[in-house]
Task: structure prediction
Amino acid sequence: MKLHEYQSKQLFAQRGIPILKGKVASTAAEARDIAVELGGRAVIKAQVLVGGRGKAGGVKVAKDAQQAEEYAAQILAMNIKGLPVRKVLVDQAAEIKTEIYLGITNDRAAKCPVVIASMAGGVEIEQVAKESPEKVIREHVNPFLRLRDYQVRNVAAGIGLPHEHWKAFGEIAAALYQTYWDTDATLAEINPLVINGANQLLALDGKIVLDDNALFEHPDLAEMRDLDEEAAAETEARKYGLSYVKLDGEIGCMVNGAGLAMATMDIISHFGGTPANFLDVGGGASSEKVAAALRIILSDKNVKAVLFNIFGGITRCDEVARGILKALDEVPTGVPMVVRLVGTNEAEGRKLLAEAKMITATSLADAAQKAVAAAKNK
Amino acid sequence: MSILVNKDTRVMVQGITGREGTFHATQMLAYGTKVVAGMTPGKGGEWACEGKVPVFDTCKSAVDSTGANCALIYVPARFAADAMFEAADAGVPLIVCITEGVPVQDMMRVRNYLDQKGAKLIGPNCPGLLTPDEAKVGIIPGYIARPGSVGIVARSGTLTYEVIYALTQSGMGQSTCVGIGGDPVKGLNFIDVLAMFEEDPQTDRIVMIGEIGGNDEEKAAEFIADHLTKPVVAFIAGQTAPPGKRMGHAGAIVEGGSGLASDKVKALEQARVKVAQYPEQIPGLLA
Result:
């Protein structure tokens, strides 16, 4: 789960990382009032959960409150990479001398946290790492020892930070690690961490991505989820414990297991169709869950056929078939359904579904081809 | 021969009195697996699975009394790290964690500690291990498998079943099926398991099932090119997955341009691994 810049910077500030004064506005008039409070000159920044908003024109410096209002109105009317801008952050403007990158993330290969830093801040770190890897310094952290002072010095020395800034940098790095660890983040990033005209270090931007698996430990953070930023169907799916991702295609998919669900999308595409979604209905696949999943899939108006791909390992296929039939009773639809049921009691399961006039298939390839054909004829 | 588990493996099930634990322990017993102990704090002295398995309060007492040499974990995510630490502390050399949803920071500490203890971990968020007709340690349905010479290692559960099923239908049995799990920080990885299959005399061919996220498949490709003599067939799920979206598994995400299925396929093909476009092509590519 991604947090907005303003949310991330609040969490940073709570742990002592210096940030600029600023507030969130959802109207141009609010933005103007905030700019007045800040003394007129202000930066207006779109709050959307995608990167590249600066390039898209979502960040602007206003010279006075009047201009802040104009810019806020423009930005609030924008769509950035398909996401409408609903909020802007109005921050004090800073004079920037140097832009540093400082981030902490999980290194999945090294199986530990890694601090990443560079004097080439203000741009995407992946790009810096690709173009000039020598400018990126990495320091791995033992999860039991946590980030030690000497490691912060390794980082400061590695990026060539002037000595006069080491103390402030050390405090910010320690606080950033604390934020990362306390929130069970998978990424806590300050980009840029700037040296301003008064020679002070300031976090100008902030980004935190939380581990969805750890949200049960952080109800306060879970509440920060911005439901406006995801498809309504994804919110609905989460309520039922379903894993759903909306895509742009025409064939709805209901599959048990994440890997098999991805493979099902791939095979649809292999046979010339387009998947409308990823959906892992999970083990067991009770009729309630199947019904909820079917409602969610059909709420997407692009869907012209639905492919059920269920591998009944522990669960019995006849039970799954009854679940599907019950779900169809609750969610009447004219969209053609192709079902592939494999595993325990598959013959009984297929018989039940064939009686209900569903298109059945035995192999994955057969099922995908039938679904692609059904979507084309629709 | 086989890898990791066989008919002599003595399994302790952590969380055996829970719904999942009881169900799967019963299935394992029916398959012929030696389930020698159960462990649920506060239920020591009881018997599980219709009186067939003694339950202990602690891993240490279970291991001391029964000589269990493999721990299988079915506890809820919030208790999973503690269960893994406890099993390792009791000296169990092989720990299999089925639990899904374990926080990554927990897993970083678990891996660090288990490595120090010299304990091998499979999972978490995995279907476990199956050596056909010898031992089922986890939730892989036993009836779809047959003993044979194909080793399987996979990040995904149901996709593993799909491949086992397709192989069995084509008359190809399996030596051992290893579900390593879909989390970003986990126990044994492709490379570790590939090395075991290379050493195992029963295994003569290997199927590797990867998916988007991370670069374990690329590393495996390099390892295969340098160290493997046995043929490997691979499948990578998630060709059509959009970047920046987590596809069910915690580890299945394309981030910052890395973790793409196409890069993995390319790396494997460069290592002269045949890559299937969908699972049902695998038996044909192995033949």
Remarks:
- Chain A has a mean pLDDT of 91.
- The longest helix of chain A spans residues 166-182.
- Residues 21-92 of chain A form a domain with the Dna Ligase; domain 1 fold (CATH 3.30.1490.20).
- The first strand of chain A starts at residue 22 and ends at 25.
